[in-house]
Amino acid sequence: MSKVLILGVKDLRNLVKKRIKNRYDCNIIVTGKTGVGKSTFIYQLLKGFRGFKIEDKLTYKRDELIRLIRDYKNSYCWADELIGMVFKRNFFMREQIKLIEIFTRYRNNFNIVCGALPIFNTLDKELTKLFRVHVQIISRGVGVLFLPKDGRQYSDDIYDTKHNQSLEEKWSKKREKNPNFKIPYHKYSTFKAYIFFAPLSEEEEKKYEMLKEQKRAEAEIVDNGEKEKSNFYNKILLMIKDKKLDNDELLKICIFNDKSFSSVKTRLGQMLRDEGSGKTLRDFLKGSGRKNDSINSYNNNTPPPSDVEVSDL
User: Is residue 275 in a domain?
Assistant: First the structure.
């Protein structure tokens, strides 16, 4: 039986430095249950790199993550709650696709990007391919290092997911029979080493918690704004599909909500394209085939249609 490799955070940091020196990017995903120490591990790893400042590189916002990857070279980025940025492709699908494009296009910036999320398989499949290192935190102070399988030409399952899932199912049945059964992580096909790390100092813990609270609050404001925009556009699109609006009525709603008419039409058109039905905005706007009066002749004092509740949009 071969010996199991044991590493410290400093060892992993040196391996990352070597990879960057050889002109490869290094994206690191850190997984584990809530409170097990994902953020502690990332902080311990990144603080040893020259020039790392947590206040500049810790983020909870997708647009800031994009900026840190795109606008900096040989730098660092810490997405502390990556699940909110890269999970399922919902209404904001274009933003997620943009993030994947940014990861791919700016790999030659040679940044070190660390992201934390609870479960590895919740990561977007295309992004999974871009993460060179996976560390699963199994208990406080203990992580497991996994690396993708190299040399695969006919499979995009670089972390050997199917095989490792079959191992998990087998081990799960053993734990049902014996609650004291210990998972042999070293038997995963992508296993490389166990990693041990220390807790943060009291000062570091305090600084991290302060920044987390502050930056989370900023991200929540952005998220709420996006939800309000989503609510507005979803309601308008539903009314258009129900043939309740024509071009003039849509214009009235835009004016009463202080929104650009052309921008709203562009957004609605994009939403229809995302649905993949092949329908355009013109197909749904009632009376769109008739000749409309000039937009410039519209009377701004004319109220919106009676079935539109402006305050709800």
Answer: yes
